[in-house]
């Protein structure tokens, strides 16, 4: 990891990219960069990132004030707007910045895994009915409204109190709260800084899946890599599980849109030279910086609550199909992670403990065993990390590591990472053919939009097995179990 | 549908789609600034839904301000996305009543979406500033905007 580590550059221009080890590549400091860039990737992934100029984005982030250690990227890195997707950057509180572009438009987009006490071979015949029922009960697709109707006061409470508020309103169980990052509520949320426009986009969308890469999947645990951790997470071979991938919907999008605009001016006033307008940011301690954090926390709480309401709908669907209570079916929440968020965390850098604002844009927190922010029931094992793959392949349950604390501010990958544009995917793959192909593999598909389905084809993504292996080899996370889809509900 | 993509009077393309690994962008054309703004908006809504069945039933007034002319384009598109997402409105025709360097006034025509009649395609979260371009080209004007989808 040291800057002087041996290794040959893979580019013709010497010094631009240095192989630290087969799983980590360093972009040495040059020009305006305040710290080096560091990308966790094998040779194939680093070449892909180079080709689509994602490395320039890692360099640009390294130029931002107060950045600590390095501008990092995970193996699922791909070109984003401003910050690369798969980027992790930590900023000092006193002289650092906070950036809405370093979080993304879909604030606290994330994944949760719900386990069951059911073994797939016993219930395989019911899987298509289950997928159908989930698609009926969970509103999905472009602009769909949810079943939760909120007034302004209730939306305020939701944004401040997050999942515990939803549970108090009957959406879920007390035990769910403990199995969500931050206990389902990010502190510091202030609805006073969430605009009327953001509220208007949020009112109708609580408990809705959305479109794009969001999904609800019925999955089967097909491999266990770490039996002790799987036992601790309540996971067993052939178990039926449900994975929910969604975010903060229009409310989060509007918060990001407004603060990128506001911070364009704020950065200029603070004398920050932006290599890319989309990197708009403000000092953490400034009015704009504090307001953004407070609004982002509201959107994060909205996102977690959104996944919570969908969990409630999942449980209702199971009760309808299996004619049994969700409790007796063992529909417990394993964990819920947010992979687009900025948070204040304590990290050790150069032997010194520091409070940092860690931005993860398409990266997942991966805290090790013993960390106080992990629920007690998992503390001896490590934080569950959930990595959604693509429809035709697999998703993963991992656990956090000590090495992640040392190398990546306790972070690992967030998914497979796209390799193909949406239009290119639509040209190459017909949604109807993809549906047939997946159904011939025993995967039931319920998608509102067929062209949207094609955009999310497995071919459009990196191989999730490889991404997760690179993370393991780099020490950022350890594999616990792999899950394969039996059914997919998409917008 | 033809008129959505081409202006028949001079066969100049109104917009084209640009692919991007995770997201999608449009390149909009026009003889005037107002035309580029209109075509960018049509391009954006063409990504969201098939527009041919969309009727001009509703009328929304729009006022937007920004730091400069380039960011005004992004602000305009984001304001239209807010209308779409908060009111479930599909918009297909746009009039610019005033278009200055840092502010504009306009009207957008369309109708509330109806899943039975309208073919919905892609959800767009926002218009971004990433690689934003607005420049003179081949005697006309051209704008490039990347959306987060």
What can you see in these coordinates?
Chain A is an alpha+beta fold. Chain A has helices spanning 43-51, 54-61, 120-123, 127-137, 152-168, 174-178, 196-202, 227-233, 249-269, 287-322, 402-407, 422-428, 431-440, 450-455, 464-473; strands at residues 18-21, 24-27, 37-40, 71-78, 85-92, 97-98, 110-119, 215-224, 239-246, 282-283, 333-338, 340-349, 352-361, 364-365, 384-387, 395-400, 411-412, 444-447, 477-490. In chain A, the strands form four sheets. In chain A, strands 7, 8, 9, 11, 15, 16, 18 and 19 form an eight-stranded mixed sheet that branches. Chain A has a seven-stranded mixed sheet with strand order 1-2-3-4-5-13-12, sandwiched between helices. Chain A is globular. The two termini of chain A are 42 Å apart. Chain B has 149 residues and is α+β, with helices and mostly antiparallel strands. Chain B is 26% helix and 41% strand. Chain B is built from three helices and ten strands; from the N terminus they run αββββαβαβββββ. Chain B has helices at residues 2-5, 33-48, 69-87; strands at 6-7, 12-13, 15-19, 24-30, 58-65, 89-99, 103-112, 126-127, 133-137, 140-148. In chain B, β1 (6-7) and β2 (12-13) form a beta hairpin. Mean pLDDT of chain B is 89; it is low at 1-11. The interface between A and B is large, with 47 and 37 residues.
Gist?
With 491 residues, chain A is an alpha+beta fold. Helix content of chain A is 33%, strand content 24%. In chain A, the strands form four sheets. In chain A, strands 7, 8, 9, 11, 15, 16, 18 and 19 form an eight-stranded mixed sheet that branches. A seven-stranded mixed sheet of chain A has the order 1-2-3-4-5-13-12, sandwiched between helices. In chain A, strands 6-10 form a two-stranded antiparallel ribbon.
How would the blueprint of this fold be written?
The complex is a heterodimer of chains A (491) and B (149).
Chain A (H helix, E strand, L loop, with lengths): L17 E4 L2 E4 L9 E4 L2 H9 L2 H8 L9 E8 L6 E8 L4 E2 L11 E10 H4 L3 H11 L14 H17 L5 H5 L17 H7 L12 E10 L2 H7 L5 E8 L2 H21 L12 E2 L3 H36 L10 E6 L1 E10 L2 E10 L2 E2 L18 E4 L7 E6 L1 H6 L3 E2 L9 H7 L2 H10 L3 E4 L2 H6 L8 H10 L3 E14 L1
Parallel strand pairs in A: 3-4, 18-19
Antiparallel strand pairs in A: 1-2, 2-3, 4-5, 5-13, 6-10, 7-9, 7-11, 8-9, 8-19, 12-13, 14-17, 15-16, 16-19
Chain B lengths: L1 H4 E2 L4 E2 L1 E5 L4 E7 L2 H16 L9 E8 L3 H19 L1 E11 L3 E10 L13 E2 L5 E5 L2 E9 L1
Antiparallel strand pairs in B: 1-2, 3-4, 4-10, 5-7, 6-7, 8-10, 9-10
